[in-house]
TrEMBL record:
Transmembrane is among the record's keywords: no
Record's keyword terms, sorted: Endonuclease, Hydrolase, Nuclease
Protein name: Restriction endonuclease
InterPro entries per UniProt: McrC, McrC_bac
Organism: Metabacillus litoralis
GO biological process: DNA restriction-modification system
Domain of life: Bacteria
One Gene Ontology term of the molecular function aspect: endonuclease activity
Pfam families in the cross-refs: McrBC
Length: 348
């Protein structure tokens, strides 16, 4: 990936600000005025502020299942385990009960991140000491090994949603440091960067239109327009962003790739990526529109350094389909102006 991996740190901060409303809290205000040499420093600074905010609010607790040998009867008695573990020899029984505890995955991830960062030579000493000083607050939380699979088991609900931003930044920073430490991971790092920034890019575009415009902004699933009602094995059509105003609806699909157009051979003409074009066209044609509704589609790529970038508008079967690119390396005011202009092209 050429240009996308070099998005200015300030613009990554702005993207985070839109994607996560948490960054608008007063505790984070000074970050927006600081200059960071690299994205690792930005992530570390966010954690140095955000983790104390979580601590002050109280670490979240959940009921966890505990199994232990005890002389006190509580919960359920597991006779089979009591026999297998010879607990009866010590006049104990294996009991199973639920305990309201801080020792849950979200807190375990934060603790493991603090341990990892406090020993990382990639983090300045002052920040390492700060992270080490947070560890006593996680004394009741188990130690776990850091790996990229941890985040796949994270689930959010109304009670723990305040953790989402910090947990995501923990992942961003861990992957940034882990993949940088081993040269064999260089290709993997490129893929991870693209995936990570792709998710952030989608969140940013959605939140930008939600906050900065008066469009009705949503991301619904689109149902297949089948004749007989049979939809078994058909893939889910999950939109990234849908903008609506008056009788017009614009379905936006964000794309973050190292290459935005394809050529069949060196020196050949650049073409749109067919799968992406088929996707947005399918979304538009399956949208359950009202009789007077006008529906269009937009593929919004993050611009790369390649000479040929998508900037085209097609009228296909009565539907307007735009394929555009957004330059994330320009000043943020330019990014805002482009996003406003791209939407107005359809809604004017």
């Amino acid at each position: 990936m050429e240009r996308n991996s070099n998005i200015p740190i300030r613009n990554i901060y702005y993207m985070l600000s839109y994607a996560y409303q948490t960054l608008n809290l007063s505790e984070y205000k000074h970050i927006g005025t600081e200059r960071f040499e690299n994205v690792k420093d930005l992530y570390a600074e966010i954690l140095s502020i955000g983790i104390p905010v979580l601590i002050r609010g109280g670490l979240i607790k959940e009921y966890v299942c505990v199994e232990e040998s005890s002389t006190v009867i509580k919960g359920k008695i597991d006779i089979n385990s009591s026999v297998k573990k010879n607990a009866l020899v010590d006049k104990k029984l294996v009991v199973i009960y639920d305990e309201f505890s801080e020792d849950i995955l979200l807190n375990q991830i934060i603790k493991a991140t603090l341990v990892f960062l406090s020993h990382s030579a990639k983090i300045i000493q002052k920040t390492r000491r700060l992270f080490y000083g947070f560890l006593p607050y996680f004394a009741e939380v188990s130690d776990i090994e850091m790996n990229r699979q941890l985040w796949k088991n994270v689930q959010y609900n109304r009670q723990n949603i305040r953790y989402q931003f910090i947990i995501d930044v923990c992942r961003y920073l861990f992957e940034e440091l882990l993949l940088e430490e081993n040269s064999t991971y260089l290709f993997t790092k490129q893929v991870q960067d693209e995936q990570r920034l792709s998710a952030l890019y989608e969140k940013f575009i959605y939140s930008f239109f939600k906050r900065e415009t008066d469009y009705l902004v949503s991301r619904p699933q689109i149902h297949w327009n089948v004749d007989d009602g049979f939809i078994e094995a058909l893939p889910i059509m999950q939109t990234d962003i849908v903008l609506q105003k008056g009788n017009k609806t614009l379905i936006v699909d964000t794309k973050f790739y190292s290459e935005n157009m394809v050529t069949r051979f060196e020196g050949g003409a650049s073409k749109q990526k067919s799968n992406n074009l088929y996707q947005i066209f399918t979304y538009v044609n399956n949208w359950n529109k009202k009789s007077t509704e006008i529906v269009g589609g937009m593929l919004l790529y993050a611009r790369t350094t390649t000479l040929n970038q998508p900037h085209h508008t097609y009228n296909i079967k009565g539907n307007k389909i735009s394929v555009l690119s957004l330059d994330l390396n320009q000043d943020f005011n330019g990014i805002k102006a482009d996003l406003f202009a791209y939407a107005i092209q359809f809604f004017k």
